[in-house]
Amino acid sequence: MNKYLLILVILFSSCKSDKKNQDFLTEDYNVKLEVYNFDELEPLLTKKDDKVYVVNFWATWCAPCIKELPYFEKLNEDYKSKNVEVILVSLDFPNQYEKRLKPYIKKNKLQSKVVALNDVDSNTWIPKIDKNWTGAIPATVIYSSEKRAFYERSFNYSELEEEVNKFLK
């Protein structure tokens, strides 16, 4: 009889412990994520103020995107005082927001504004971003109230900095 009692105590203890770990993971990845359709995103791509905006389209499943993301984060930090704002537009699929996107944001402590674009009508919105965009990512738009440039490519930090500096002159 004592054997069975010991087994029950162990089972209940381990279940309780697993529950705590599960709650911790849920809380740990509790990241606020703004999800837009293209009409809601478009104002972020057309602001007319004194800032330079760097808008990067990426996804957690895109290896070149993940490789360059730290450069955008560094740019966001280094150029805040120069009135530059980085916006990271995730193209992750909605069913991946909780499993991949939010954990990635939390784990990597992303400080740039991160939004998710959930609009299946890509044939309509892709050419609105740039008429020559094939839809491949990573892709970046850099714009100010005076000019705009589109890049369907990856960046290293010095290349990204060089392009942004063209907008600051």
Uncertain runs are 1-28
Lateral arrangement of strands in the main beta sheet:
1-4-3-2-5-6
Largest sheet: 6 strands, mixed
- Helix amount: 40-55%
Characterization of this structure:
The chain has six helices and six strands. By secondary structure, the chain is α/β, with parallel strands linked by helices. Strands 1-4-3-2-5-6 form a six-stranded mixed sheet. The radius of gyration is 21 Å and the shape is globular. The model is unreliable at 1-28 (pLDDT under 50).
Task: Summarize the structure in short.
This protein is α/β, with parallel strands linked by helices.
Relevant terms:
globular; 6 helices; 6-stranded mixed sheet; 46% helix; 169 residues; alpha/beta
Chain-wise SSE layout:
Layout: H1 2-28, E1 34-36, H2 38-41, E2 52-58, H3 63-78, E3 84-90, H4 97-107, E4 113-117, H5 122-129, E5 139-143, E6 148-151, H6 157-168
Parallel strand pairs: 1-4, 2-3, 3-4
Antiparallel strand pairs: 2-5, 5-6
